[in-house]
Amino acid sequence: MPLQISQYKSPIGVLNLIADDQILLGLNLSNVKALKDGLSQEDFDKGFKEVSKIPVITDLLNDYFSGDIDAINGISVRQPGAPFSQAVWKAMRKVKGGKVLSYADLADHAGSPAAVRAAGSACAKNAIALVVPCHRIVKTGGALGNYAYGLSKKEWLLRHENAL
């Protein structure tokens, strides 16, 4: 079965989505090519089909943007990456909506307290923005830090989640 590609119009812009049935493999605000480039070879080889919506995933995104900030926790995800990146992404998924975590604390939660830069790198490589909530990771002291899609979008998401 080919992977599903869809676009979702959100308050922060058009989200590009790619999924294998109901498992989200990528979500970004840039372009579909970047999503495809981030796939494992096994997933890429399945081919692609554009759809207007992806069952369950689109509904949960609707719920999230309508105010149920925990709705995205119901979306299953998968992305290729090194073991430490996987640990970082897993730790990010545990950061509750309305909360933030520092890069240092993220490294600690991922099992390597000294690997703060590596944790930041894993955030930057995260191919499933919003659902693997890299926007909830901030600098020690609370400054927003970086966000691939711009600080205004990170700030909007954190305000939407009542974290600011």
Describe the structure.
This protein is an alpha/beta fold and 164 residues long. The protein has two domains: 3-77, Double Stranded RNA Binding Domain; 83-160, Winged helix-like DNA-binding domain superfamily/Winged helix DNA-binding domain (Arc Repressor Mutant, subunit A), CATH 1.10.10.10. The protein is 35% helix and 19% strand. It contains seven helices and seven strands. The strands form two sheets. The chain has a five-stranded mixed β-sheet with strand order 4-1-2-3-5. A hairpin with a 2-residue loop joins strand 1 and strand 2. Helix 5 packs across helix 6. The N and C termini lie far apart (42 Å).
Quick structural overview:
This protein is of the alpha/beta class.
Question: What level of helicity do the residues show?
Answer: 25-40%
Radius of gyration: 15 Å
Give the tally of structural domains.
Answer: 2
Strand order of the largest sheet: 4-1-2-3-5
Low-confidence stretches: none
Output the helix-strand order.
Answer: EEEHHEHEHEHHEH
What top-tier CATH class of the largest domain fits best? Mainly Alpha
Number of helices: 7
CATH topology name of the largest domain: Arc Repressor Mutant, subunit A
